[in-house]
Design a protein that fits this description.
The chain is mainly α. The protein has one domain: Na+/H+ antiporter like domain (Na+/H+ antiporter like fold, Up-down Bundle). Strand 1 and strand 2 form a beta hairpin. Helix 2 crosses helix 6 and helix 6 packs parallel to helix 16. The termini are far apart.
C-alpha cells in the first residue's frame, strides 16, 4: 500500500544539518535579524502602519505577540547566552582570571560609561533618567555578523575578545533587568520559579537527559518567573548557567554543548528575527523634536561614544594597573575596532527601551537604538575592514 504524502514533512538529516549550519553562521543570523527589522521599520512607516500595530497586539493565549516576542521568544536567546557564558566560565576564555581580565574589565566599563553618558545628557537637559540602561548592552549576534562580514583576515583572538566582552556585557544587563526593571515582586511565583530551577539543577546532577522531563519544567519555570514580576528572560539565562558543561567519561559532548548546538540556529534564525520584527517597527520622525529629545541624544551618544570610550578605557586601565595584557595577536587598533562595534546594541537595547518607557517615549528610544546601532556598525565596519585589509597585505 502506497504511503500518503505528509503535509510539511520533517526534513531529512542532511537538510536539517544544512539549515542548522546555515543559521549558525554569524553573517546569516545577523542578516536575517537585520532583514526582519528592516521589514518592520518600512511597514511601520507606510499607510498600512495600523496593520503592523494590530499584528503586534494580536492576542494569543495569555499574551499578545509583542509580549510573546519579548518575554517568551527572547528567553531562548538568553538560554543560549547562559549556555555560552557557562561554557566560557568552565572551559573557555573566562576560566583563567588572567586571560579574562582585559575583556571583562572592558565589558564592565563598556556598560557603565554609556549609562553615565545617558545620565549626564538627561540630567543637563532635564530629560527622563529611566532609560539609563538602554545603551549599556551589546548585541552579540549583530556584532559578530559585522565582524564576520568585514574582518575575515582578523585574528581569531579578536573574535574571542568580542565574544567574551559581549557575553559578560549581556550578563550584567540581564542582572540590571532583574534588579531595576521589576515593577512588583510576587513572592509565591518567584519561589516556585526558584524551585523549578533547583529541580533542573538536581536533574542535571542526576544525569537525566530526557526532554519529556525538561520541557514541561522549563515552561513552568518561565511562567512562574513571568508571573513573579521578574522579567521572564531571567529564567532562560539561569537555566543556561545551571546546565552541565563538562562531559562525562564516554560522552562525546556535554549537555551544554548539545543544547547550544541545537538551540543556536533556532535562536539566530527564528527567535531573534521574530523579536526584531515585532519590536523594531517604529515610526521614524526625524524632526526637530526628535533630534533634540534628551532620551534620543543620550541613547545615540551612549552607543556611539560611550561604548567605545568605556571599552577602551576599561581594557587600557586593567593592562596598566595589573599584569594582564592583550593577546599577542592583537593590537590596540584592533581593540579600538571592537570597541566601536560594541556600540551595536540592537536586541537587548530594544528590550530595555520597552521596559523603560511608555509607548510614545519608547518609540523614540527604539528609533535612537536603531540609529545609534547603525552608526556604530558602519563605523566599526570601516575600522575593522581597514585593519583586515592591512593584515591581509602585510
Amino acid at each position: 500500500m502506497m504511503s500518503r504524502p505528509r503535509f510539511l514533512p520533517d526534513p531529512d538529516k542532511g537538510e536539517s544539518t544544512f539549515l542548522g549550519d546555515l543559521f549558525r553562521r554569524e553573517t546569516v543570523g545577523g542578516g536575517v535579524m537585520l532583514l526582519a527589522a528592516l521589514v518592520a521599520v518600512v511597514w511601520a512607516n507606510t499607510p498600512a502602519a495600523d496593520r503592523y500595530v494590530a499584528v503586534q497586539h494580536a492576542v494569543i493565549g495569555p499574551l499578545d505577540l509583542e509580549a510573546w516576542a519579548a518575554d517568551g521568544a527572547l528567553t531562548i536567546f538568553f538560554f543560549v547566552a547562559g549556555l555560552e557564558l557557562k561554557r566560557e566560565l568552565v572551559v573557555g576564555s573566562l576560566r583563567r582570571p588572567a586571560d579574562a581580565a582585559v575583556p571583562v574589565a572592558a565589558a564592565l566599563a563598556g556598560v557603565a560609561t554609556p549609562a553615565l553618558v545617558y545620565t549626564v545628557v538627561n540630567t543637563l537637559a532635564d530629560g527622563d533618567l529611566g532609560g539609563w540602561a538602554i545603551p549599556a548592552a551589546t548585541d552579540i549576534a549583530f556584532a559578530l555578523a559585522v565582524m564576520a562580514l568585514v574582518g575575515r583576515s582578523l585574528p581569531d583572538a579578536l573574535r574571542v575578545f568580542l565574544l567574551t566582552l559581549a557575553v559578560v556585557d549581556d550578563l550584567v544587563v540581564i542582572a540590571i533587568i532583574a534588579v531595576f526593571y521589576t515593577s512588583a515582586l510576587h513572592l509565591l511565583p518567584l519561589l516556585l520559579a526558584l524551585l523549578c530551577l533547583a529541580a533542573y539543577a538536581v536533574l542535571q546532577r542526576r544525569r537525566v537527559s530526557t526532554a519529556l522531563v525538561y520541557a514541561p519544567l522549563a515552561v513552568a519555570c518561565w511562567w512562574f518567573m513571568h508571573e513573579s514580576g521578574v522579567h521572564a528572560t531571567v529564567a532562560g539565562v539561569a537555566m543556561g548557567l545551571l546546565t552541565r558543561v563538562l562531559p562525562d567519561p564516554g560522552e562525546t559532548r556535554s549537555p551544554a554543548e548539545r543544547l547550544e548546538h541545537r538551540f543556536e540556529p533556532i535562536s539566530a534564525g527564528l527567535v531573534v528575527p521574530f523579536f526584531a520584527f515585532l519590536s523594531a517597527g517604529v515610526g521614524v520622525h526625524l524632526d526637530r523634536a526628535f533630534v533634540t529629545d534628551p532620551v534620543v541624544v543620550g541613547v545615540v551618544l551612549g552607543l556611539v561614544v560611550g561604548k567605545p570610550v568605556g571599552v577602551l578605557t576599561g581594557a587600557w586601565t586593567v593592562t596598566r594597573l595589573t599584569r594582564a595584557e592583550l593577546n599577542a595577536d592583537l593590537s590596540w587598533r584592533d581593540v579600538f575596532g571592537v570597541a566601536v562595534l560594541a556600540g551595536v546594541g540592537f536586541t537587548v537595547a530594544l528590550l530595555v527601551a520597552e521596559l523603560s518607557f511608555g509607548a510614545e517615549e519608547a518609540e523614540a528610544a527604539k528609533t535612537a537604538v536603531l540609529l545609534g546601532s547603525l552608526v556604530s556598525a558602519l563605523l566599526a565596519a570601516l575600522v575593522l575592514g581597514r585593519r583586515s585589509r592591512a593584515r591581509r597585505t602585510s
